[in-house]
From TrEMBL:
Residues 156-410 form the Neprosin PEP catalytic domain. Keywords: Signal. This is Neprosin PEP catalytic domain-containing protein. PROSITE patterns: NEPROSIN_PEP_CD. Residues 1-21 form the signal peptide. InterPro entries: Glutamic_endopeptidase (IPR053168), Neprosin (IPR004314), Neprosin_propep (IPR025521). Pfam families: Neprosin, Neprosin_AP.
Length: 410
């Protein structure tokens, strides 16, 4: 598959103001202030509250995170996944067989999520879910598209504002992928932009039947209302048209873990010339039941995407991508200063540039094998670049990222 056929997988939703701007105030006979809103805004608020009631499930416990998030401990059997018509009556599966060759890394550090630093946790039989607020939904382009991506366009289109630095493999059958991803807090210059680093497992054509499974970290002011790096997931089975969503913002992904909140902030993050932190992600297809499982960190199963959600991914993937992506809205007619990764170019190396390391694939025999024939591509190398390599400790790896706007990227 040629480079020009690689597709873009993350598009930013247009943002709305965080509050109603067209309200009017009048004084009645009793000199009380009455706020009047246009009918369509009242209807929008009604739709938002109905949607919130649907996705924010009743909790047995609530935890306040230091970053302002509210984490609800929701009974596992009441999670959003089971609203899906194909999953009603489905019971969460037992943990699958791990890929052969998998070994837990003895990391000298562990990445925690900010909400768990309170010492609070969700009880057994529940899962932690980041509560969605009215303000979250008001930032979205529409209630219907909240938590979803706009339909993709081809990677070879130069007009969509999305820029990448990725490593990828294609032309074979892929049953999973694994990597350790360096976590940073890149500067995002506009609420209309984002910066992310992730793994994509992909199947289907680049038309209406594209299937993807995605996981990584992102900074997205539009989705979360802040600039913290956050653990996220995504899926679609129809090229981002009507199926799929981020995190647990629709029915689909089944969470089995009571310690990880999808969409919650990751802490700590790496610092330039300072401490380096990464998260290990493993996505693989259970050979017995066919579901696609996700593991976060060192041995923590998060949950799975049921096989019934997909068409082409019922069998296997035909492409895997690793890397970074940003949105460039060209503020003021020049390139954005939104950073990718650490905000520094790949050539600066460890402690300065962001990295993916220990890239591996899962083959037909449920065996982890080193990534072979990895190709690297940067859409705009003067703005964000990528350099791959192989060594005994990191296996297949690459450094990637950049500052965006600079003298060579005006």
């Amino acid at each position: 598959m040629s480079c020009c056929l690689i597709v873009t997988y993350i598009l930013l939703l247009c943002l709305l103001p965080s509050s109603f701007s067209s309200s009017a105030s009048l004084h009645n006979d009793t000199d009380e202030t009455v706020t009047l809103r246009p009918q369509h805004e009242i209807q929008k608020l009604k739709l938002i509250r109905e949607h919130l009631q649907k996705i924010n499930k009743p909790a047995v416990k609530t935890i306040q995170s230091p970053d302002g998030d509210t984490i609800d401990c929701v009974p596992t059997h009441h999670q959003p996944a089971f609203d899906h018509p194909l999953l009603q009556g489905h019971k969460p599966m037992d943990p699958p067989e791990m890929p052969k060759g998998y070994s837990q890394e003895n990391e000298s550090h562990e990445n925690f999520q900010l909400w768990s630093l309170t010492g609070e946790s969700c009880p057994e039989g529940t899962i932690p879910i980041r509560r969605t607020t009215e303000q979250d939904m008001l930032r979205a382009s529409s209630v219907r598209r909240f938590g979803r991506k706009i339909r993709r366009v081809r990677r070879d289109s130069s007009s969509n504002g999305h820029e990448h630095a990725v490593g990828y493999v294609s032309g074979s059958q892929y049953y999973g992928a694994k990597a350790s991803i360096n976590v940073w807090t890149p500067r995002v210059s506009s609420q209309y932009e984002f910066s992310l680093s992730q793994i994509w497992v992909i199947a289907g054509s680049f038309a209406d039947d594209l299937n993807t499974i995605e996981a990584g970290w992102q900074v997205s002011p539009e989705l979360y209302g802040d600039t913290n790096p956050r653990f996220f997931t995504y899926w679609t089975s129809d090229a981002y048209q009507a199926t799929g969503c981020y995190n647990l913002l629709c029915s689909g992904f089944i969470q089995t873990n009571n310690r990880i909140a999808i969409g919650a902030a990751i802490s700590p993050a790496s610092s330039y010339k300072g401490g380096q932190f990464d998260i290990s992600l493993l996505i693989w297809k259970d050979p017995k039941h066919g579901h696609w499982w996700l593991q976060f960190g060192s041995g923590t199963l998060v949950g799975y995407w049921p096989i019934s959600l997909f068409t082409h991914l019922m069998e296997h993937g035909n492409m895997v991508q690793f890397g970074g992506e940003i949105v460039n809205t060209r503020p003021g007619g020049s390139h954005t200063s939104t950073q990718m990764g650490s905000g520094h170019f790949a050539g600066e190396g460890f402690g300065k540039a962001s990295y993916f390391r220990n890239l591996e694939m899962v083959d037909w025999d449920n065996t982890l094998i080193p990534t072979s024939n990895l190709r690297v591509l940067a859409d705009h190398p003067n703005c964000y670049d990528i350099r791959g390599g192989v060594n005994r400790v990191w296996g297949n790896y690459f450094y990637y990222g950049g500052p965006g706007k600079n003298s060579k990227c005006p």
